[in-house]
# Entry
Amino acid sequence: MSNVSRRNLICAASVGVVGPLVIDDAASAAGRAVIAVADVPVGGGVVVTRRGVVVTQPRRGRFRVFSATCTHAGCTVASVVARRINCPCHGSKFAISDGSAVAGPAEAPLPQRSFKIRRGKLYLT
Ligand code: FES
# Structure
């Protein structure tokens, strides 16, 4: 993203060079990896609460990312079991493949989030 490395920025700052602040993509908040793809089970998923998402792998090498906020009343989903994303509050269940509500009371799907995978790690985009 930038030709300016983090080390060069730190060096420039330490000698008083004034200029535009550029933060390396991998180190910025938006660029932090959500999870290593190797940590997402095939046919399952992982709720990453600190990032507000659920990362699933319905089939080997096919990943999906959904909002972790239940579309019924806003609880954070808590687990992924038997190909379902489960909300602890009122029992809604969502499919790991497309986030669709497969058991109520939720009716709307979990919104998908866009992402990229780079060097074995998944990033939101
Ligand atoms: S908030 Fe998730 S089922 Fe009600």
Observations:
- The chain is about 5% helix and 30% strand.
- Residues 33-124 form a domain with the Rieske Iron-sulfur Protein fold (CATH 2.102.10.10).
